[in-house]
């Protein structure tokens, strides 16, 4: 019996708008993941709709990214920024809007791929109401997050409940690293189907420029030793550890050191407040002269920043995957990262970079000194980094694995329908 699946799918990312500019407080890895996976799947013949909550009245309702890949913004709650811990109450409206969209557009999704626990809840409701199959990626796990923070938010119980329920009811949970799979099993539930498919990166864009060209484009002198951070201003990202590590490193005494801390922030918002806090530490340690805050780096300049750096540091307290690490590695820049979560998977200690205990600025300082004092070894780490990303983390490779998973699940749906008909 030849059974062909309808290749129309929905990726749901309630709080991470895939069409928004990246680098702001709520715009990070999840937005990049959903957008890149969507576009790569569209290239492989899928019709991809990315659903998010409309968080700005001026934003267009539909944004076309590429042929067969678009973002659709649904109105659910105020058309204004709402922090993710306050979005839950608007989810029933989001579900209704998504069902209404399908009715109006004459589309019926058989499979939804949900991202983060808020979207997991939406997916579970759609499963109840429409019988869709669900693939889910956590992006962050409440059970891990609440271990590393002191004030547990009100929403914690709801979140933990949804994260357990989706594990036990979704057709497949996609873990982005073996470490995440382990956390899910030990901290959430033994039940449910988990498969590992990593996050990806654009191996053509990152790695397209060499260090000398990148430095001259950015006006960085060839003899400078450049240590780079890229990411959001959030205390969980551990920027403080990096600044203190640079402050106590031998490389600082040797001169010519430059620390670049790149990422967007908005004055008065939580990312702006964290940036002020980091700047105060920079001043306290007398590092103002060597530290640069270029703000959010746009897509076109990001490959140059990574390529210009001698080291990229990812000092997160916890990181479910950490796209920045593989972007830097694809750009032939060794990574020094915290020995946590997905970073343990992407960074191979002593082969592509180094891993340090989180929040241990002495260990980060030693790691920075080891690489900067031995440029030949740094070059070897750089070559191995690029190779590792090419082998494991390209978006096209990730999309191929997701595509196979969707087809497997959709074919099951069709077989079930055929059987039901045959029995009736
Ligand atoms: N990013 C960017 N410009 C910036 C800062 C960050 O484009 O100025 C991007 C970065 O390249 C990466 C994403 O934001 O793709 C951050 O993802 P990651 O998984 O490292 O962290 P998250 O933000 O999800 O915690």
From TrEMBL:
Task: Read off the InterPro entries from this record.
Answer: Glyco_trans_1, Glyco_trans_4-like_N
Q: Name one Pfam family in it.
A: Glycos_transf_1
Q: Does the keyword Phosphoprotein apply?
A: no
Domain Glycosyl transferase family intervals? 211-380
Report which superkingdom the organism of origin falls in: Bacteria
Task: List residues of the Glycosyltransferase subfamily 4-like N-terminal domain.
Answer: 28-205
Alphabetical UniProt keywords: Glycosyltransferase, Transferase
Q: What is this protein called?
A: Glycosyltransferase family 1 protein
């Amino acid at each position: 019996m030849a059974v062909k699946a309808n290749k129309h799918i929905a990726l749901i990312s309630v709080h991470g708008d895939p069409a928004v500019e990246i680098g702001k407080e709520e715009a990070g890895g999840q937005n990049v993941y959903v957008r890149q996976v969507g576009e790569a799947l569209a290239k492989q013949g899928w019709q991809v709709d990315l659903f998010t909550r409309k968080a700005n009245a001026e934003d267009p309702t539909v944004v076309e990214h590429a042929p067969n890949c678009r973002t659709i913004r649904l109105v659910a709650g105020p058309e204004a920024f709402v922090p993710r811990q306050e979005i839950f109450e608007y989810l029933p409206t989001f579900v209704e809007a998504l069902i209404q969209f399908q009715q109006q557009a004459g589309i019926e999704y058989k499979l939804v791929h949900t991202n983060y626990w808020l979207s997991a809840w939406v997916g579970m409701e759609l499963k109840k109401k429409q019988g869709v199959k669900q693939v889910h990626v956590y992006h962050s796990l409440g059970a891990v997050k609440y271990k590393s923070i002191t004030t547990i938010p009100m929403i914690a119980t709801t979140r933990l409940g949804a994260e357990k329920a989706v594990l036990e009811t979704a057709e497949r949970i996609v873990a982005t690293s073996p470490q995440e799979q382990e956390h899910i099993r030990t901290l959430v539930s033994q039940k449910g189907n988990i498969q590992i498919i990593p996050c990806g990166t654009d191996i053509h864009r990152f790695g397209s420029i060499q260090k000398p060209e990148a430095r001259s484009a950015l006006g960085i002198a060839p003899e400078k030793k450049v240590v780079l951070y890229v990411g959001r201003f959030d205390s969980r990202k551990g920027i403080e550890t990096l600044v203190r590590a640079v402050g106590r490193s031998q490389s600082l005494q040797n001169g010519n050191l430059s620390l670049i801390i790149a990422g967007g922030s908005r004055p008065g918002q939580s990312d702006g407040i964290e940036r002020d806090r980091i700047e105060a530490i920079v001043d306290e340690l007398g590092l103002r002269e060597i530290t640069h805050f270029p703000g959010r780096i746009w897509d076109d300049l990001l490959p140059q920043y990574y390529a210009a750096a001698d080291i990229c540091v990812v000092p997160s307290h916890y990181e479910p995957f950490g796209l920045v690490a593989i972007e830097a590695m694809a750009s032939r820049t060794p990574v020094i990262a915290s020995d946590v979560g997905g970073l343990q998977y992407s960074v191979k200690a002593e082969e592509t970079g180094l891993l340090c205990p989180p929040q241990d600025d002495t260990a980060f300082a030693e790691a920075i000194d080891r690489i900067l004092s031995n440029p030949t070894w740094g070059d070897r780490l750089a070559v191995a980094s690029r190779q590792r990303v090419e082998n494991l983390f390209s978006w096209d490779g990730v999309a191929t694995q997701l595509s196979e998973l969707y087809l497997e699940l959709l074919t099951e749906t069709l077989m079930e329908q055929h059987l039901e008909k045959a029995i009736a």
